[in-house]
Design goal:
The protein is an alpha/beta fold. The protein is about 50% helix and about 15% strand. The protein binds zinc ion.
Length: about 325
């Protein structure tokens, strides 16, 4: 059942966070849906601009609709990750997406408001909801690069949400995109979240760039021929603390890529005579499902599926 992120956030607010997972292909789709159904979690499928152009945007939309048929018990949102205005409008018209993110955070405040508001008006008219962003995350997100964190200002967040009427807000509190998130003992700025929650009580907040980059996963990749050095991520034990402060959506992309990389490197290292893509694919799908189920436990979303479905059917 495809629902909006807003409907999922209403159920989760203050209690747990919904996992938002980026996918690009068939094997990820199968693993993602299996992992969420098995751990009984509502979830968000994130499709980025890069994912839409990797094969074809219509291919991904068809995957979502078919997955909905194959897994009738799944409750999920189909969400555009980091869209520009043009891509958001395309998703609004697609008939498949239930939620879009307009990321105009690299523009100055008033221009960000102006662009976000146009997308909100178009999306709401068709029953979709909108995530917007204020502040800049350090790291690379497809074609946008930020050298330093620009933390979200709580006063600006309140003003921005009131001006744009967006449905959720991605905040910059020290997470970053990619596999190299922290140097030294940098911490997440929960004090900023607290201030934003005071000004916007009950309003859903989003944490991007929240992969954990497990050292064990990096070690296995490197032992199987990889060369990933100095990678680090977000401590997953902080997810529930963030959820209490109004974070209802936590984005996880890098960790899923690491699972893919580890499975494929180890498979071909251990089976140098094989060349069938289904060999590693058969290992990857259940491994990805297991990864998703474990994340959902850390996010607190595992086990909530039946209650969410019942609430949404009323
Ligand atoms: Zn992001």
């Amino acid at each position: 059942m495809i629902v909006t992120t807003k409907e999922l956030f209403q159920q989760a607010y203050g209690k747990y966070a919904i996992g938002a997972y980026n996918i690009n292909n068939l094997e990820q789709t199968m693993g993602l849906f299996k992992g969420n159904v098995e751990s009984k979690a509502p979830f968000i499928v994130q499709l980025s601009k890069g994912a839409r152009s990797y094969t074809h945007k219509r291919m991904l939309e068809a995957l979502m609709q078919t997955a909905d048929e194959i897994f009738p018990e799944a409750v999920f949102a189909v969400h555009l990750d980091h869209g520009d205005e043009e891509t958001c409008m395309d998703c609004v018209d697609s008939g498949v997406y239930s939620s879009v993110m307009i990321d105009a955070s690299h523009y100055e405040l008033e221009k960000n408001i102006e662009i976000t508001k146009r997308v909100v008006d178009a999306a709401h008219a068709k029953g979709l909801v909108v995530e917007a962003e204020l502040g800049l995350l350090k790291g690379v997100e497809e074609d946008v690069v930020a050298a330093e964190h620009v933390y979200t200002q709580p006063d600006e967040a309140e003003y921005f949400v009131k001006q744009t009427n967006c449905d959720s807000l991605a905040c910059a509190i020290g997470t970053s995109h990619g596999a190299f998130k922290f140097s030294g003992d940098q911490k997440l700025r929960f004090d900023i979240l607290e201030e934003i929650q005071k000004r916007l009580p009950g309003f859903p907040l989003v944490m991007h760039g929240s992969s954990s980059v497990p050292p064990e996963e990096v070690r296995r990749i490197n032992e199987a021929g990889g060369d990933i050095k100095g990678a680090s991520g977000v401590d997953a034990s902080q997810f529930l603390g963030a959820a209490k402060l109004g974070v209802t959506k936590i984005n996880i992309d890098t960790d899923g890529r690491l699972v893919w990389c580890r499975v494929h490197r180890e498979f071909f290292r251990d089976h140098p005579d094989q060349f069938d893509l289904r060999g590693p694919g058969k290992v990857f799908m259940p491994e990805y499902a297991k990864f998703i189920a474990e994340k959902n436990v850390l996010l607190g979303s595992a086990g909530h599926l039946d209650e969410v479905r019942t609430a949404l059917k009323k």
